[in-house]
Amino acid sequence: MTCTLDREGNRYIMRCARKRYSEEVRRRAEEVISSLDITASNDTKILEAARKVAAGMEKEILEYIRDNVLGLGPLAPLMSVPEVEDISVVSFREPVFVYHRDLGYIPTDITFQSEVELAEFIKSIVERSGKQISISDPVVDVSLPDGSRLQATLGTSVTSEGPSLAIRKFRKDPVTPLDIIRQEGASSDLMAYLWLLVSRGANILVCGGTGTGKTTFLNALMSFIPENLRVITIEETREIEYPGENVLPLVTRQGIGRDTEVDAYSLLSIALRHRPNYIVLGEVRGEEAFSLFQAMSAGRYVMATFHAGSISTVVHRLEARPLSIPRNMLTALHCIVLLSSELGHGGTRRFVSSVYEVMGLDRDTGELLVNRAFSRENGTYSFSRASYALRRLADATGTTEPELMADMKRRSQFLSSLQAGNMREFMAKVSSFL
Asked: Could you give a GO molecular-function term held by this entry (predicted)?
């Protein structure tokens, strides 16, 4: 199964060739499926069952089941295209669209023939992922076996056009800080600054709008966590990929039948009992926020993402319901990283637009005081040279601000000297830095 990119007039279309199976193979495969717990069966069991049903056709039957039952069916070819970041189906009436890294959203030649076919396809994927979706519970987020994230809806109560789905593909090789620097998403000085904070212990909020790469950036920052520290991650759907050894990933669970719901607040309580050095929360969005800021105040280091596009929006959303974080607790944050994105002829560019440091509260007005440590203008980053976060770090670690500034410069030079590599190789080089 392969996909090619064709140009039609002033637009591109992705065409995918799929293997066609005979009606006999389809019919025999259905017999095999009805005789087995197919999701719990390995290839050997499926081949044995297929041999009993139709000797000589077992390999074709296995391929059909892999492709159409255990895999992603018509969407499977798109998953192997490196440039495809997202896959979306807005309706059976429209072609499947993909988000191409260089071209943005483009259509494909893949379609679903009916609302029933699309609904059954969604149910099959969701159920194999251990969750349920129905007309009465029509929205779900699940992790696919390869780590990709699926969001799906059913019926017309949520989307007027009927069933829909969106897949955010998982990168097998997570983006490293070095990748972000080379893509001009940050400068080596900015990354060295964040490296210094993370390695010494800091509370960092990564903020931005939809599609700005918050989780990707958070994942990259985690590569700076010293290997001798204990890390616990909390997410609704597994997206964070931290290759360190001393890490415990926790994932929320929806309540199904007699099963009780396990939300982020419950998982945060569990995490604190494990005495973590770092708690990494996929996204701050509910009642867990208050406990998260309490953990910061108690000496746990926290990194998390938050949906907000400006520093004023960050403060407003944290203080407003349902989060309701008291302003004095916000001073536990060391810095807030703001991400932005822009669509150009070369695709979407994601970058750090600003880094703000939390200084404290104004004694007279009670307003939150912040310092813009890094800013970006015309693609160039500038450092304010007055860092309150480094000053706080110096006081906490018994060093001086000039010493930390010198350390930051050495780290920046070190990052500039590194060659490209995967996440594990990058972490090994970071660990070797003295």
From this structure: ATP hydrolysis activity
**What single string gives the DSSP state of each residue in 249-282?**
EEE-B---TTPPPB-HHHHHHHHHHT--SEEEES
Summarize pLDDT for 357-370 with one digit per residue, the tens.
999 999 999 999 99
Whether residue 120 has pLDDT greater than 90: no
Q: Are 400 and 414 in contact (CB under 8 A)?
A: no
Mean pLDDT, range 176-196, rounded to an integer = 96
Q: What is the pLDDT of residues 310-320, one digit of tens each?
A: 999 999 999 99
CA distance linking residue 202 with residue 395, whole number of Å? 13
- The Cα 225–Cα 250 span in angstroms is 18
164 touches 90 (CB < 8 A)? yes
What is the C-alpha to C-alpha distance for residues 301 and 292, in angstroms, rounded to an integer?
10
Instruction: Decide if pLDDT at 69 tops 80.
Output: no
Burial track 41-69 (b if 16+ CB lie within 10 A, e otherwise): beeeebbebbeebbeebbebbbebbebbb
Tell me whether strands 149-153 and 139-143 are parallel, antiparallel or unpaired: antiparallel
Name the phi and psi angles at 133, rounded to 5.
Answer: -140, 140
132-153 per-position pLDDT tens digit: 899 999 999 888 877 888 999 9
pLDDT at 48 over 70: yes
Residue 374 amino acid letter: F
Alpha carbon distance 68, 128 (integer Å): 13
CA torsion 117-118-120-121 (nearest 10°) is 110
Q: Could you give the CA distance from residue 15 to residue 8 in angstroms, rounded to a whole number?
A: 12
Distance separating alpha carbons of residues 392 and 299, to the nearest angstrom: 14
Helix or strand (DSSP H, E) at 220: helix 214-222
Residues 6 or more apart whose CB falls under 8 angstroms from that of 165 comprise 88, 89, 122, 125, 150, 151, 152, 153
Amino acid letter, 62: L
Q: Alpha-carbon dihedral of residues 110, 113, 116, 119, nearest 10 degrees?
A: 10
SS (HEC) of 151-174: EEECCCCCCCCCCEEEEECCCCCC
The span from the CA of 181 to the CA of 413, in Å, is 13
